[in-house]
């Protein structure tokens, strides 16, 4: 059974803060080939496409394209604000290993 990705309330709240002074745009979470572990995450503000999965919360949207969706099955999209920096993070149960920065992974 394919479990769609989940977005935490903290991630939706951060997206709302980002979109507060602009035209609201969805956060796109995608997977692309590359990075030091084989795949890398592409996280950016982008418009939704017709075939995207749309996850909504707090008046905000996170979108995932159909090609990336199998790589993100059961993943949790979150936001962390730590001493080393603030960023959106992905806890991906499909990843068998990842790099130290958390932006690339292998399956």
Structural class: mainly beta
Q: Tell me what portion of residues adopts beta-strand conformation.
A: 35-45%
- By CATH, the superfamily comes out as HesB-like domain
Supply the number of helical segments: 1
Low-pLDDT residue spans:
none
Apparent shape: globular
How much helix, percentage-wise, in residues?
Answer: 10-25%
What's the architecture, going by CATH? Sandwich
Radius of gyration: 13 Å
Q: Let me know the largest β-sheet.
A: 6 strands, mixed
Overall tally of domains: 1
* Spatial sequence of strands, sheet with the most strands: 4-5-2-3-9-8
Distance between the termini: 18 Å
CATH class assignment: Mainly Beta
Counted beta strands: 9
Q: Would you give the CATH topology?
A: Hypothetical Protein Aq_1857, Chain: A
Mean pLDDT: 86
Reading the helices and strands in chain order gives EHEEEEEEEE
Descriptive tags:
107 residues; mainly beta; Hypothetical Protein Aq_1857, Chain: A; 6-stranded mixed beta sheet; 3-stranded mixed beta sheet; 1 helix; 9 strands; 10% helix
